[in-house]
What we know:
Number of strands: 7
Radius of gyration: 19 Å
Amino acid sequence: MDTELLTPAEAAMVASVSVRDIHRMIDERILPDRWYRSDGGRRVHVNACPFVGFYYRAAKALTAEERATLINRLSDRIDTKTFRSSRGHWRTHSRPADWTIEDGFLTVSLWEFAASADDRHSRLEEARVLVTEGPELLGGTPVIRGTRIPVHDVAASLAAGLSKERIRAAYSGLDDRMIELAAIYAEAVPPRGRPRSIAAVMPDAAIVAERKVARHPRA
């Protein structure tokens, strides 16, 4: 299938789930085989992301068996010719009816999940354009294009609760959109090795808020 392959972290970001959730979909064979590759490291087709989002976010409304059945039936309908050029841009290349399926008296639409994944995938693509890396730039550290600002440092500052105003003051040349995209990039492409502390990133910074991320319950 000629479509974009994502790392588990990228797929998790687009589907709005955890990386662990992505691996579970593969390990438990919830996701049809054609939507992922395991040779040379796991990769997930971008077009699988709406199905992954649906599986976890619909856990309170449908049983695991019902969700898996609907995923298999609906993914069988997805025509590779229709989605080959979309690379995840579902709003452009499909319509709500394409993502709706009837199962007896039950009618289920995955359009909401396709639209959500479409938004997040578009932001990921924008974040990829924003970031560059190379051996001549801080030893290969990913940086904001046109600067020497490490993208993961910006994301760490935002995650630590620092305001965008304060981050802009610390990193001249950044705007709010760049800061948001840096956070998206860092979520999809986690830094290698141990994360740096906020004290190392911005020595004069003070944590002003704590952000707790809810863990997705097992469905």
